[in-house]
Design goal:
The structure is a homodimer of 229-residue chains.
Chain A: H1 8-11, H2 13-29, H3 36-43, H4 49-53, H5 57-87, H6 94-110, H7 116-126, H8 132-156, H9 162-181, H10 186-189, H11 200-216, H12 222-226
Helix pairs in contact in A: 2-3, 2-5, 2-7, 5-6, 5-8, 6-7, 6-11, 7-9, 9-11
The structure holds a DNA duplex (30 and 30 nucleotides).
Amino acid sequence: MNLHLRTLKPQHETRTRILDAAEELFMQHGFEGTSMRLLTSKAGVNLAAVNYHFGSKDALIEAVFRRRLDPMNAERIAELDRLEKSAAGTAPAPERIIRAFLRASLAMIEDAKGGGRNFIRLLGRAYTEPSKPIRALIGQLYGPAMERYKSAFQRALPELAHEELIWRMHFMFGTLAYTLAATDTVQLIAGCKPEDRYDAKLLEERLTAFLEAGLRVPAKAQSTVKKAA
Amino acid sequence: MNLHLRTLKPQHETRTRILDAAEELFMQHGFEGTSMRLLTSKAGVNLAAVNYHFGSKDALIEAVFRRRLDPMNAERIAELDRLEKSAAGTAPAPERIIRAFLRASLAMIEDAKGGGRNFIRLLGRAYTEPSKPIRALIGQLYGPAMERYKSAFQRALPELAHEELIWRMHFMFGTLAYTLAATDTVQLIAGCKPEDRYDAKLLEERLTAFLEAGLRVPAKAQSTVKKAA
DNA sequence: CTAAGATTCAAACGATCGTTTGAATCCTGG
DNA sequence: CCAGGATTCAAACGATCGTTTGAATCTTAG
């Protein structure tokens, strides 16, 4: 039966090559801007391989997201589980929750030579993608983790109205998505060049400080804000 | 030759119809996802009209951005001028600067029936657009306003290191861009529906409170963050 | 009115898109 | 070893893309 163990290596090698090439090219040229001919050429596989292994281009796009996003959000949830376990009943500080949320994304950025960095930038784009199915997929893959973090923040910030928290998480999500996606846009604000490669640890400190302050600040004119019927 | 004073109404009507249709379709389907045939059909003009009036599809994309972004950033700068004039030498409070920056974007959102709302969402996408020329154009159009606001913030927050400010403005920009672009993604965080139409005033309060807190918070471990310039 | 430039029109151009096909080749269980 | 499913391959499919063309129509100055 298993006399030849090497059978497992080439079994999915074509799939992996396609996914890797797709990750990079989708990031560089977008989904519609990446042709199957360019993609398969870069992957070193036949043109028909994508349709054979994935069925269609759309199915490939979904596979690209699932491959990274499933374990990423699982890790996000595991990180929160660990945090809450160690807090033993009491609500963890907002800063700890923020760091737990950021970690999975920032870890991927340090995976410089792997495709992690490419994917994280691709992901940042996907939130504002015109295509409905893609946005729906992203939402579906993020859903469970979002629910967990929402209730965690709710316990950590009990004085914040529910609707207010939703919006602030929305802001937080936007900051993270944009920061990771538009890396080379930093220099648009200043003549400052992107200089050195991303320092994930430094970025985590900056993001955490910024986001925690924004999340914790008391809502302005809460009374007037609440009334909006 | 072309110094003739023609009737102004029909002179640019085709151009305007094309720009309006492009604004809406680019938002719905993206740049590459919008074909000239669909676009000209929606605009009610001939297929060749785009190439006749704008030269190419890429030039049309640029015209779509210029039409709104030029006056928008001019207004942003005028708002800041007014603010600094009224402050008479002293540095305006960060909150005032933030509101001055947000106002131009939020005003467009209230332009519900006009294309303003469409454009503002389209703009949010452009920052993470794969196409280099588009990102370069956006950066060029935003440049002057960005410089002015950067020095305004620098005077208002003198204790903040230059590099730190750059990043926080980047975060701020991201929050705004994402919030405006991914409007229907709010419900991904909560089961909360987009409910009522955008209340620009309420959104301004929420954004200002969040952003001001994030901008003003002291930098963590400033000594280690500063490292070498 | 007439001539000439500005604009619109239907039609077609060549290129490229995602996908399909059927034969060739590889791999593996028996 | 051989049979048969899995995979790869070159080639082609029909559709759609952005753009171009040249004649028809509109607009306006003289």
